[in-house]
Specification:
Keywords: ATP-binding, Ligase, Nucleotide-binding, Purine biosynthesis. The chain is of the alpha+beta class and about 475 residues long. About 35% of the residues lie in helices and about 25% in strands. Strands 12, 15, 18, 20, 23 and 25 form a six-stranded antiparallel β-sheet that branches. It has a five-stranded parallel β-sheet with strand order 3-2-1-4-5, sandwiched between helices.
Length: about 475
């Protein structure tokens, strides 16, 4: 069977490798804007073909489909989904993993997502206001006294989020004035009419549950946690993700089985609400970027319409069943036949980027990477290639996160293993990465216990979701 994968990053490397390693004997074809070394290996090993083109162009996706005539497809990143890549497969009668444009709106528009959750009364929802006028958004920030998160109203690659907590009253006006000045910057990231969404601020440990669905069956993957901030100890600008952890088993050290099941229920309800709202079954990955809060317990921060990156690199190496075949079953709406088996051992991923990322991607581009994959494997690490191209036999950086280095085992031990493995990678520039990923988990466990005590008491008092700050007259949309 032939499978066509759309995308070019570490997530797609992991997916293409799962397909290439499948006992089903797939031939892997790929459409990317540059040659990813890992995807290239999957293509060569299986006798497929690498096609270069614009993954966000529906016409070029259609051209690749006509050229390959695949038995099924897999769309990795969000932007091709927003532009109708999955719809193009289905219009040609080809099964595909990935929602259509209508379903992908759950990620593309934060305002649509919040409206959907309120309309269908889905637990874990936050109060919000949306603004087309940047002036009105700034005015609201100056007048409203509660703690808020200010975000671009649509998906812009994890950029632009600003948060202010009103814990020190004497700093409130200065904080709010500084935040209101950020509104123009945040709004400039958005192309559509609605520019800004302001949400009530919540706090707690974050985690992600990715769920694969064919519109009938829901297959939850192990939990993962993404580390978005660029620099050590969670400071600096937000990125697509500087690392991730997953496990042990299906959980994380600070999330319970009951919270996992509650999160799955929220995601299932949301997928069904999307179908009710759009008239189309949601098919593909739907992923809840969650926070454990005293307001609701499991609380939705945002949704992905695809697998997260680098969360994928933390999850797929832990899967012992044939994940490539599971993708085929999902595409063909036969997911009820799938069985997912996962290692008990946890995993850690650390992203490695050239100096300059994330603020000066021009400086991070065009650098040469050198690494010995066999030596890294022997040391206990797996590498997924991200924003790095295979050009003339060399690995050339493209300006973003170049590598994702993964190890499985005890958290403390594999932290040290990854330290050693990253030291074996060289480049003609300094490499940047975070060494705190997967460390100091006791702090998150303690934070989760405090939050859990609060939301359990709220549940007993039937006050889950209630917020004095965001009353219907004071802030709720």
């Amino acid at each position: 069977m032939k499978v066509l994968i759309i995308g070019e990053g570490a997530r797609e490397h992991a997916l293409s490798e799962a397909l290439a390693n499948s006992s089903e004997g797939y031939r892997v074809f790929a459409l990317s804007s540059y040659i990813n070394p890992g995807i290239r290996d999957s293509v060569i090993r299986t006798g497929g073909e690498y096609i270069l083109g614009n993954i966000n162009s529906r016409e070029e996706v259609r051209s690749a489909i006509n050229k390959v005539n695949p038995d099924f497809g897999v769309v990795g990143p969000e932007d091709p989904l927003f532009h109708g890549a999955a719809d193009e497969f289905r219009l040609n009668g080809i099964p595909v993993v990935g929602p259509g444009v209508k379903g992908a709106e759950i990620e593309r528009s934060k305002v649509w997502m919040r409206h959907l959750m309120w309309k269908y009364k889905i637990d874990g929802r936050l109060r919000y206001r949306s603004f087309s006028s940047l002036e009105e958004a700034s005015k609201f920030l100056m007048e409203y006294g509660g703690s808020v998160a200010v975000k671009p109203a649509e998906q812009v690659g994890g950029k632009g989020v600003k948060v202010v907590a009103d814990i020190q009253a004497y700093l409130s006006k200065e904080k709010r004035r500084a935040l209101s000045k950020s509104v123009d910057e945040i709004g400039s990231l958005v192309r559509n009419d609605i520019k800004i969404i302001i949400e009530e601020r919540v706090d707690g440990p974050e985690y992600t549950l990715h769920v694969l669905t064919d519109g009938h069956t829901y297959l939850p993957l192990p939990l993962a946690q993404d580390y978005k901030h660029a620099y050590q100890d969670g400071i600096g600008p937000e990125t697509g993700g500087m690392g991730s952890i997953s496990g042990p088993k299906n959980l994380l050290p600070f999330i319970t089985q009951e919270e996992y099941e509650k999160t799955l229920g929220i995601i299932q309800e949301t997928a069904k609400a999307i179908e009710s709202e759009t008239g189309e079954k949601y098919r593909g990955f739907i992923s809840g970027q969650m926070m454990l809060t005293d307001l609701w317990g499991p609380t939705v921060i945002e949704f992905y319409s695809r697998l997260g990156d680098p969360e994928t690199s933390a999850i797929i190496p832990r899967v012992t069943s044939d994940f490539g075949h599971i993708l085929q079953l999902a595409a063909e709406e036969k997911l009820s036949k799938a069985k997912l088996e996962v290692r008990d051992e946890p995993s850690i991923v650390r992203a490695v980027a050239p100096l300059g990322y994330p603020l000066r991607r021009d400086l991070a581009s065009g650098k040469i990477l050198e690494l010995d994959l066999n030596a890294l494997r022997e040391k206990g690490c797996k590498v997924y290639f991200g924003s790095v191209a295979y050009e003339g036999g060399r690995l050339i950086t493209k300006g973003s996160r170049s590598l994702e280095v993964v190890a499985l085992g005890n958290f403390d031990e594999i932290s040290r293993t990854i330290d050693q493995c990253i030291n074996m990678i060289s480049a003609n520039t300094e490499l940047v990465y975070r060494t705190d990923i997967g460390r100091r988990l006791s702090e998150q466990i303690e934070k989760a216990e405090i939050v859990r005590y609060s939301y359990v008491n709220r549940a007993k008092n039937s006050s889950l979701g209630s917020s004095a700050d965001w009353s219907p007259n004071g802030g709720l949309w």
